[in-house]
Amino acid sequence: MDQITVDTAAVVVLAEGSSTSEISNRRGHLFEMFIAKLLATQGYGDPHPENLNFTSEGIELDVQARHTVTNEQLICECKAYSSNVRVPLLTSFLGKFALARADDDRIHGLFIALPRLTPEAKEKADAAQAKLPGFRYLGSYEICQLLQAANVLPSWDEGPEIRSDPTVIVTEHGVVLAACELDSQTRRASRWVTWTRTQDVPAPVVRLIERHLSKGLPVVRAGHEAGAVPIRVPSLPKIVEVQGSTSDFEYQLPAAPEFFIGRKILAQSLLEKLRDRDTAGSIVINAKSGWGKSSLVLHLQKGIEKAGGVGIVIDSRTAERSEFVPAAMERIIRKAVERKVLELPPQAAFSSLQSIVETLKRATWTSPARPIFLAFDQFENVFRDSDLTREFRDLAFLIREINAPLTISFSWKTDVVAWTEGYPFGLRNDIRDASLVSILEPFGPSEVEALLRRLEKSLGSKLNRDLRQRLREYNSQGLPWLFKKFGAHILAEVDRGVTQDDLAKQALNARGLFESDLARLSPSEQAVLRTVAQAAPVAISDLDYDVATGAVLDSLLHQRLVVQVGHTIDVYWDTFRDYLNNGSVAIEDSYVVRYAPLGAGRLLRVVVAEGGSVSVPDAAARLDTTATVVFNYSRELRQFGVLSAESNRVTLEPDLLDSPDREEAIRARVSQALRRHKMYKLAADMLTREDIVSIPQFAAVLAAEFRAVAAKSDSWVTYARSFCQWMEYAGLVRLLANGMTRMTESDSEPLGRLLSGAVPVRVRSPFPGANPGPALQLLLHLSDPAGHTRPSKNGFATAVRDLTALGLVDTDEGERIVLSGNSVFSHGAVEPGRLREIVERQRGMREAFAALESNPGLSPLSLGIAHRDALGAEWAESTMLSAGKFIRAWARACGISTQLRTTDRQD
């Protein structure tokens, strides 16, 4: 008997039935009978099944029995799986057996693993057999020996001469053997042959093998020339190798090795592991979509070939059934034989994954051994099918038995949306557990700079300074694909005659580029594109005949909006597919918000005063500044979609200009844009963990996330403050003296305004910032300039700050301070009750006034401490004392009586 063959034998239980539950019940009963026969060969009788499970891996059976001579008890666990049994299951049984033996030192333990244990588990089992009296392990080889000695099984030599995939088949008609007969030339399976010990295999058994095991191949009885008619003629799976790009900015394809940029440390580390390994293994390359996984594996393939080895990168989107895995393995082995990296053994077989692994174990490798690299790219599509995923999982575990430098690579996205039902999380995690996992990081500043230089080379000229800066910011998330998409767009626009100055003013983002892709298509092309997107990847045969053979599909292929992968059609990128299907773009905007709302508000007021559009020189003259400052003021507004991109003009978007409430329409537009921005996502994440996030904290996170943007730490604080002010304008956060916090329904402070009102340059100080005297005097002066003088210069600034916080003053189109309304006045004087209503909208003021009314003699320091706690601020004692004084003064202005204290009369 050939141990090399029998050691890989599988045990399969086949049964007929009218329902799934009936078939399962019959299979369970048959497996119990089979194990009873096996135990009987060892002298055990009266077996009692304790637990029977049918899992996705195979059959599990727990049995107890007693020896017919010694009466010693046996506990037995049986695992009949499609792949080798791993360490955790054996370890669990050993623990169970050790506990049982502590109570009864005569008890025996038997662990049955079919087809066998993994090498790691076998090593542990051998150690346990040496150290634990009464423990024994049985695999396929030992079981076949025992059953053949007991005349239960026939000899393997009675089967086909050239065979693979030995299988013990258990049925209600008896136990038979089966194996694949191989074609002598291709070494692939040509048919299944089955035989039994004493008679012809019953016809029902042949039918069971045809239905559940043969995968369409004919099934014959040993010694019979004619076989059954195949159920179907199996076709070889379509294997498509990944192709690299032909230029730096061909974004539809991964970068070919000659256009590969960056990742030097990671690539070199992986390449060394692939070249120098002695035992086969697998790696998993994980990253988000568009981060360059495919480009990296193409680079690794090139490195392996330079080292004298062979490599193939396969597109997994054509994988539809489990035969894809052995077909891919055969492809790389044939290539290795052609390149004289290895020689096939006489018993070579390509009928199944198991037979291929055995072939590699017996192959003769050149000395020194040269590496083999097989990469499965776009692997997330495999997860749609649990059976297919299981075959890949088995590959990851089986190859570890090969003592040669073979590496299998799996690349899949970490941001793929998992299916809620049937998603093979366990199988996916098994692949990761069996592999070296490498997490791909986004590009950093040096990689983006290298791409910028290559873009300049393609343009034949230096990039405009502003355009270069915009590109660096747009790509601050470090996505290679996105930069290539931007680069291709710029090259095409420049070829069309668009200047770099005009390109710098465009609000470039992924959504805009997708819209540009669609804008050039005809209605019929858009319809076909969306049809493909809804089912992608879709087999060409599943498309309507007119679509599959028409000029429209050819046009989309020519424009590279769809790509052909074997016999399937897919959209060129999954993010574009999501955009076509639901209008969403998973990539957050990543331009850096540099300027606060103050300048933008000043510019907007000029634009509105001019009817919605003004030339840059005129705007500069009205604001008494330069064209560069106007460009800076307009920059964020263009990004937010408030201003349109026009050369040398500043124009408000028509729908905003025509809105009955322009301010709220602009606020909604800004809010929508900010919610798409990565900075907002970071801020929101931080605020879920902390009540208050300081500006320096936020700045530090921005600097870490936007690694492609080179800026000093002070600059990041400025950018963080500016973005926070825009978020507050949009009603997304509330700014405090010490940072930002979440908006709540109880927040009653008015939001800032761009079309009117003074928006502070820096984070607003807490209210109140001074005694109310100057503020009340300014209110009266604005109401009646002739009758009331303006506050002194020192008091004017604090008055404006406090009144702006209260929403009582705005600035008009000429940047003059004006009253926002007359609600606080009564008969030409400030009415205390109305003033109190407005003041109590400020955070902490309602509570402070209530405390004073309850205890009019409350000291300024006590008030200041309470106010500090209400705001979550960090103040020195002097600041708390000043705040308490100001609160008492504003309370009196609002009609609340305060009581002078006999000591500490400092207010």
From TrEMBL:
Keywords: Endonuclease, Hydrolase, Nuclease. One of its GO terms (biological process) is DNA restriction-modification system. Residues 27-128 form the Restriction endonuclease type IV Mrr domain. Pfam families: Mrr_cat (PF04471), nSTAND1 (PF20703). Signal peptide: none annotated. The keyword Ribosomal protein does not apply. It comes from the Bacteria. The keyword Ribosomal protein does not apply. InterPro entries: nSTAND1, P-loop_NTPase, Restrct_endonuc-II-like, Restrct_endonuc_IV_Mrr. Residues 257-472 form the Novel STAND NTPase domain. This is Restriction endonuclease. GO terms for molecular function: DNA binding; endonuclease activity.
